[in-house]
């Protein structure tokens, strides 16, 4: 609930501060005194779009501050998400500049208008003169009925629908992937065969390049090997012969000097290594060109390079592509079996969803019947005795119309008088009748998670007499469970309030300003008398009687 409200430089409000309480509080005053401005100020706190007209003429900015209290776990979770500590209460501040800019804070933390709207959705229920338009929306009509149905019944429909939607999507993906794969199947098979023939492995291009380069330089290799053999082993003064002579001379005197002994051992090692060189040189000298092998190698190398360019990948990437194509082609081979399996699963999911949705359908029919029965006393009290209501709840056979909240189309129908045909609310009820119907619904406790604070802005327009008393008594009863703020021009409604605040406009220093005054019992008598037509002895007596009647405990059917 709203604990306190402070409004500065807001339209006709220069600086007002109110302490608000639980129960029904009525705001009364002359036409044009500023009652609608109060509603705008409350809307500003809860995220209404900023309006430059809110800023008082000559001021730089308008400011609205409110302290609210709520035990709603949804609000606690929302503030926790925003990292806002609410242990010391919740203080909301919003500023609107003369240029139309808007800023907001929650407990001193800068916040967005979107967060204010979320808080308003949880804590604040504004019933304005045009809110009855919401009642004409199919979603709202369904919400009214569904609020009276056990959560597990609705959860079963949501869960079975989610599973069905998943299977439907999997089938669509299967068809899409299959159609796409079929178009590319011939290409994939051809390309896979080309890559498989290359026998790809990591580093293959480097290996083939080495073989190719060796084949291209075979003559140079032979000539170099023959020259080395001649110098190393075949000439009279060949390297090996000279090495043998050196070893013979050194070994003869090596025992006479340690260095010669070391040199002799190294020379012997060189002789051993020299003996191993000759076979390699002979092999290289006798190497022949295999033109066929060279051609195959170069063809394979060219094909590999072309594949890498074509797919913009290296050897490992080509191997990954091969694996992917293999999986796709295998899936094509088993697609028929997969589709049959999924169609079977889809049928099972359709049956499960239909069963859950039909249970919800029956529950809606029952809930609607009970709701209409419970609404009857409220409608009678609010001057709608002749209005007949029914709920058309029609299960849709077209699967495209199925939703996560069931397969029903729901619409409230009304007949203005007994015996007349039922039509949509828009075609049957006037704005005033719709407004009172919304009030009856709220009084009947229809909506789940009703906000702690409700404000009714001139919901009593167009009514009077005993119907006015019924509206007032209904609002007072609602105030037993919630904070109810009412802007009214009816003395019957004002008399039923727990608290009354007068809104008065005056001119000071050539400026118009609006003040709010919390009324005492005596002041209430004077205000109600004014609302009756003027303050005199007769109207004051009538006002006293009305306040006595309005304060009496009223019990309504729920």
Account of the protein in words:
This protein is an alpha/beta fold and 558 residues long. The protein has a domain at 174-333. Helices cover 57% and strands 17% of the residues. It has helices spanning 35-45, 73-81, 113-123, 132-135, 138-146, 151-197, 204-216, 218-234, 239-253, 258-285, 291-311, 315-381, 425-428, 431-443, 465-479, 491-495, 521-532, 537-551; strands at residues 2-10, 13-19, 23-28, 61-68, 90-97, 102-106, 109-111, 124-127, 388-395, 408-415, 423-424, 453-457, 483-487, 499-508, 511-518. A 6-stranded antiparallel sheet has the order 2-1-4-5-6-7. A hairpin with a 4-residue loop joins strand 5 and strand 6. Helix 7 packs antiparallel against helix 11 (291-311). It is elongated, with a radius of gyration of 46 Å. It starts with a strand and ends in a 7-residue tail after the last helix.
